[in-house]
Design brief:
Blueprint (H helix, E strand, L loop, with lengths): L1 E9 L3 H10 L10 E3 L2 E5 L15 E6 L8 H13 L3 H5 L6 E3 L2 E4 L9 H7 L3 H8 L4 E6 L10 E6 L4 E6 L2 E6 L10 H8 L7 E4 L6 H8 L5 E5 L3 H13 L6 E4 L3 H7 L6 E4 L9 H7 L4 E11 L3 H18 L5 E14 L2 E11 L6
Parallel strand pairs: 6-7, 11-12, 11-14, 12-13, 14-15
Antiparallel strand pairs: 1-3, 1-4, 2-3, 5-6, 7-8, 9-10, 15-17, 16-17
Helix pairs in contact: 2-5, 6-7, 9-10
């Protein structure tokens, strides 16, 4: 129990008084109002000055119970940080409202706790990030950095609290394991991962030309029950994660990892596969031609990922199908498009969508 300065008001005006205290910014929301016989004790912030004209009720010190911890993580984070901010409104306004949770690792946006003033707070409170982790019921805290502009799209995460970045994330009945400080994981691609799980691909031979940690590979192996996947990946950290996940999901016997340029792998498997995944952004166009050639002579399916301006999506689809039909013709195959489907995965930037075009080709039909 804690001694707290409160305003006692009749029960019948309790709600009205509470709202007035909020308007005057003097209600201490860290404590719960308490009924005392026919009156309500409303807790006040330290040093509160009440407008006596609006409140003609007496003040009295009384014991009130501390409010139970909020179940809202945003409120818990704010409650944990407020005592360190000395009523600095500018810093209070920049308390992060968004973050990503991977296992027990919280990843804040790249600008979190970096505005002028936060450095002094963090320096003064040596356990700052421990407090943040505790407030969010996490074991580790990190801060996102821009994805590296390299061929492997290497993740860049600054670990602020904790000793390593390895996480294990459950999704759709399987588990992914990876080091979040070294490889990229896109939570926003969840709908596309689950869509791959429902593909009618049982018994197929598949190439995942940009496998990463196995976003789509694992779904196809575990749920779509494909016969075998040849996964192309050149990032050693992603390969480690991919092989770990395959083992833990018990599908390693149906997975072969090719740690070389995917163009080489696609050409090595020319004419032998049923399906090719081209999951690279902003554009996978560099692999369209060898991907078409990798499909069996009777045809197959491509899943082509791309970032496209919203107003150009329809024309892009038509142009892409025409290009792929031409690649097939150049390879001596008389194919047509027998079906296609466009999936809008998410907004990548203003006016720009991450889309996936599924295109199925066959020598048994002319182009649609």
């Amino acid at each position: 129990m804690t001694m707290k300065l409160c305003l006692l008001v009749p029960l019948n005006v309790g709600e009205e008084a509470r709202l007035l205290l909020i308007e005057q910014d003097v209600l201490d929301r860290a404590y719960s109002p308490k009924r005392i016989e026919n009156e309500l004790a409303l807790p006040l912030v330290e040093g509160a000055e009440i407008d006596a004209i609006e409140f003609e009720h007496r003040f009295e010190r009384h014991k009130v119970e501390r409010a139970p911890p909020s179940i809202d993580p945003h409120s818990r984070l704010q409650d944990a940080l407020l005592p360190m901010l000395n009523s600095n409104d500018r810093l209070i306004q920049t308390i992060p409202k968004k973050w990503e949770r991977l296992d027990d690792l919280i990843l804040f946006p790249k600008d979190a706790f970096l505005d002028d003033g936060w450095d002094l707070v963090v320096e003064e409170h040596k356990d700052f990030y421990h407090i943040v982790a505790k407030a969010l019921n996490a074991g580790r805290v990190g801060r996102q950095q821009p994805i590296a502009a390299d061929q492997m799209r290497t993740a860049q995460v600054e670990l602020l609290y904790g000793d390593n970045g390895w996480v294990e994330v459950k999704d759709n009945g399987l588990v992914y394991g990876f080091d979040a400080t070294k490889v990229m994981y896109s939570s926003g691609n969840v709908t596309e991962r689950h869509r791959m799980a429902s593909m009618p691909a049982e018994g197929e031979i598949v190439i995942d030309a940009y496998a990463g940690i196995g976003y789509y590979t694992m779904q196809l192996l575990v749920h779509a029950n494909v016969k075998h996947i040849h996964a192309c990946e050149i990032n050693p950290n992603s390969i480690h994660a991919l092989e770990w996940s395959a083992k833990h999901n018990r599908v390693q016997s149906r997975l072969t990892v090719h740690s070389q340029d995917n163009q080489i792998t696609l050409r090595e498997f020319e004419g032998t596969v049923d399906r090719v995944l081209l999951g690279y952004l902003p554009s996978s166009e560099a692999t369209w031609e060898p991907a078409v050639r990798a499909l069996k002579a009777t045809g197959g399916t491509l899943h082509i990922h791309m970032n496209v301006e919203e107003e150009r999506i329809e024309s892009w689809c038509q142009e892409t199908m025409q290009k792929c039909v031409q690649y097939a013709k150049d390879a001596g195959r008389n194919w047509g498009v027998v079906s296609h489907h466009l999936e809008k995965v998410k907004w990548y930037a203003p006016r720009i969508r991450h889309v996936v075009l599924d295109v199925s080709f066959s020598s048994m039909s002319s182009a649609s």
